[in-house]
Amino acid sequence: MDSRYHTYRRHVLQARAAFIHGAFLDQIADHLLQAGRELAFLLAEIPPGVLREKQEEMLIDRVKDPSLQDALELLALSSTLTNSYSLSRREDEEVKQRRWQRAAWLLEQMDVYLEELAGAMNEQCTGPEAVPFKGSASSVQQGSGQRDV
């Protein structure tokens, strides 16, 4: 479970860094999609009692939220479509803008889940050998040097 959490956290942090530094949107999408997969595995692996029942229900409901799933699928699909087909210049710019907005929203959601998981898991960690789980504690800011493929 610790390994999944840290892998999830790493992908969220890498997506945020890529977003802020104006990396190619496909790189950001890849990290967000991997974070989404890790989050699903992580929630499936959390043993009973680690999270309070209400916290677990809340996280699972949020992850199963159709808008999050749709956004992940659309981000993956739009990456494939814009790389495979040539669009008119105007359509291309509109598609890119929607993809950046979707990526920003997804990154914010992943940050929220990261903070909530860290907080919930830290409540369960006690004793001198307990290593606290870290959240993200930073907001997403869209850089001006955005690139896209």
From TrEMBL:
It comes from the Bacteria. Residues 135-149 have a biased composition (Low complexity). Residues 127-149 are annotated as: Disordered. This is Uncharacterized protein. It comes from Thiolapillus brandeum.
